[in-house]
Amino acid sequence: MLTVHYALTRNELWLWYCAIVRKGxxxxxxxxxxxxxxxFAITRIGGxxxxxxxxxxxxxxxxxxxxxxxxxxxxxxxxxxxTFGDKGITAVRGKQAVQVPWAKIHSVTNxxxxxxIARRNYNALIIPHRAFGDTSASxxxxxxxxxxxxxxx
Length: 153
Hints:
Blueprint: E1 2-6, H1 10-42, H2 49-74, E2 80-84, E3 88-93, E4 96-101, E5 105-110, E6 114-119, E7 124-128, H3 135-151
Antiparallel strand pairs: 1-2, 2-3, 3-4, 5-6, 6-7
């Protein structure tokens, strides 16, 4: 078993979001205006093709802004306690406790911002490297968490 206590900062959350955009999420962000403009132009939202494109761009800007700001809106500075074991992860934040079996975990990766545990429902746990004290402790924790995840497959 491995237990870690930490509180994620807004900056760490922002850095992680920027990292996933650089890794390929930008394609989805670019797809929103292309699809919206095309759909709005074809259906002539606003009365003409040009107006449809303009409305598509406005709609896209709102959706992209929402996608960028939503993690910051949902952010909570509460300390989290994560316990990793054979059966999964127990996450405690305040009075709220959640158990997540390894079957619901998509991946465990070691990123610049920290260890990222991505769930199959597209949520993620971001554990900053500072939560482990030093670089070697963070690397050991990553190996341990990855081993638990691999054993469950």
